[in-house]
Each structure stands twice: as structure tokens, then as C-alpha cells.
Amino acid sequence: MTDTAAQAALHAAAEARAGDVTISGVTKRYGDQTAVDGLDLHIAQGEFLSLLGPSGCGKTTTLRMIAGFEEPDAGDIRISGASVVGVPPHRRNVNTVFQQYALFPHLTVAENVAFGLRRAHVPRAEIGDRVVEALDMVRMRGFADRRPTALSGGQQQRIALARALVNRPSVLLLDEPLSALDRQLREEMQVELKLLQARLGTTFVFVTHDQGEALSMSDRIAVMRAGRIEQLADADTVYGSPASAYVAGFIGRQNFFSGTASGALVEADGVTLRGTASLVDGTAVRAAIRPEAVRLASGSEPGENRIVGRLVGISHLGESMQYIVESGRHSIVVLTPRPSAPSVQPGDDVTLSWDAQDVAVFPDERASQAPEPTPAAS
Predict the structure, then answer these.
(1) What is the DSSP letter of 338?
(2) pTM of structure
């Protein structure tokens, strides 16, 4: 290979990894508390990855270390192939959108978006073109002369995005940017964010405690627990094949049954569940069944898993109906699409059934504190 060809190959390799993030053995402590514990994670260039988990799991600390607002106590962080440990935030080719948009109220929309470019001493003519480009990205060009106080929450969120994107970062970090919006607007912005990311090809790292946000937007989801990654996979895998009871309980709703294994059966306080995995007899386990996998009928129902109970509650959830059924000591949640909803009333005796393939079984690790289903809608 000639020197020119070698240089071209190196340049192509650098371009291919521009915007990738590699976290290797990163640990962050605050006094006696370990916020991030030996974390390893690779985020590919152009990927939309969500860090998902409850408060205190380490997701925001991880984001802040990528941004440079916090430094790791151990390990390495590389962006586009280069270590950024010790590099100040303004010298990393990343930008962050925070939960609070932090727009300057005395500046216009255009001036807010241009602020970072002016600090970087970008030529004035180029600033104008890039501000228009950034506002077009978020469909806010017509609001350039307004003040942030004259904008709705969703519009302010778009301006915060434009201000972050105008610097053309290789990685965009988003720290729960939709949490202040109402539900309908939040769902609309989820769609817009994903479309924007796909169009730009920029690496997005999104922090959220909202499973719906992560499932709807992410290429992959890192479910975090106690400073570590419990499962890293695409949305279908995390939802359909959770790696633990913790993940199963955090992603979506579950009906949990605690009991002991006997081959492919789980004996759980008067209820026998048949799954597909053969387990060591006597093993303490937790079986999980998603509410949408449970069928409810007013009469008898055939199936490999079937129990009877009494209907105690019905909730209307828009496109689906939620039923709460008590059977012995168990309270079971059922979700049924509205067109398929049976004609039943509270107090009716009903039959529940489900398929063996819909029974997930995990070791009974009570330290995971996987949430139990409750009658309230999630």
C-alpha cells in the first residue's frame, strides 16, 4: 500500500468512528457511594442509545462523564477514538441538552442558537447561515425573532436542541429533555427526536427513567442498575427477552409469581405455571407474565396454563382495557385490545389463560426489587 493509500485508509477509518463512544472500566465514587461501577459500554457512530433506569442507578453520572462535567475515578472514556479523560467540556466535540432548557430570556431565539458559535469566534456570515440551518432542522425558523418567554414548552425544547446541534457535535447528549412536557407533547417530541437523529446521523445518548421513551426511540437500550448495565440490547430483546427479573419488572408491566421450580413447572402459592425452560427442582424462582399475554374469558378456556378468579376492577386505557383479577393470594393484571374486550363486570367469575412460551422464569433475587404489578395503570 502506498503512503497516500495508507493515509486515505486511516482517514476513512477515522471518519467511520467519528462520533463513537467507548467507556472502559469506568468507576465514579462520591464519598462512600459508588455511582458508576466498572462500566464498559461502546456506542457506535450514528446510534441512538438510551441509558434507562431509576434514580440513583448511575445513568446521569455516566452522561456527565461523557460530557466532561464529571471525571471518572478509574477507567477511560474515548470519543471518536481519542481519550477525553481530563479534557474540559468545551474541548470535547459533544453538546448536552438538559432537562431545564436554560435559554437566555433576554436574547431572541436566533441569538440563543448563535450564542455558542459567537463564543467559538465563528465568522458572522457563517453564523447566520448555520443558525437558519439549525432552526430549519427543528422547524422553528419562523420564530427566530421571538423571545423564549413567548414560546411553549415544546417550542423551547426545540430551540434548546437547535442550540446544541448548531455546533455540529459528533455526539449529542440528552439528559431527560422531555420530562417537563405534558404527555401528548412528550410523545410527539419522541417521534420528532428519532426522525431528527435518523436524518442527521449524529450519535445520540439519551438518559431517561421513562421506559416508553426508551422503547420508542432507541436503537439499543442500556438498562442500568447500581452503576452497572443489567442488560444492553435492542428494544424488542429487552422487552421480549429480559435478562433478569429486575429488567422484566422495569420494562413494561409484569405479573410476578414467586415459587419453586419443578422441571418446566413453577409452583407458586396455589398456582401452577408451565413454562418452556426445564429448571432444577426446588430452585426458588420468580415467574413473570406480561398482562397483554393473558387471555380473559367469562367461561371455561382451554390452554396449558389456566386459572379461575374473580374480576375486581376494570380500567379504560384508551386503545386497551385493563382488568384486575384476584385468584387466591394473587392479583393479576390483564390488558386486552378494546375491540377484543370481553363483556364482563366486576364481581364476575372469570378464567385466565396464557401460553407456556409467555412465561419467563428468573432466579428469585429479592435484592433486585423488581416492581410488583399494581391495579393502577402504568
Answers:
(1) G
(2) 0.84
